[in-house]
Amino acid sequence: MVWQLSRHSAGMAYPAILGRRLDRPTLNLGFSGNGTMDLEVAALLAELDAAVYVIDCLPNMNASAVAERTEPMVRRLRSARPKAPIVLVEDRTPSPTHRCCLSIVATTPPAGLP
Fold it and tell me: What's the pTM value of the predicted model, to 2 decimals?
């Protein structure tokens, strides 16, 4: 789940660009500002065979929501995928022209790649 700017083309969103540069598939869930580390979303993410989870929901949340929801989300992902790295991103300063989008770089490499 990552912060990104709204783009006219999904291929120009930074998760797509990152996937091309790393030659790895990425999955952009497109929650558009509604990423708040809901445990139900964590349960769905845990079903994915993730290479890595990148969670960047802070622009959508206040301090009490972060304190309440971060640990349960990480525990849920960790229980399902004990070896998948979980990256928590912080220090985002949104502006009125930015929108949020939940995405994950969370699929296994294509066949034949390490």
Answer: 0.69
User: Residues 6 or more apart from 10 whose CB is under 8 A from it?
Assistant: 16, 28, 30
* Domains of the chain and any CATH numbers: 10-104 (3.40.50.1110)
Say how many residues make up the chain: 114
Higher pLDDT, 105 or 66: 66
Number of helices (H), then strands (E), belonging to the chain: the values are 3, 4
Place of tokens 């445990």: 39
CA distance 34 to 31: 5
What average pLDDT does the segment 2-9 reach?
Answer: 55
CA distance 73 to 41: 9
> 88: Cβ–Cβ under 8 A, 6 or more apart, which residues?
55, 56, 70, 74
Question: What token pair was written down for 78?
Answer: 């960790």
Instruction: List the structure tokens of 11.
Output: 């291929």
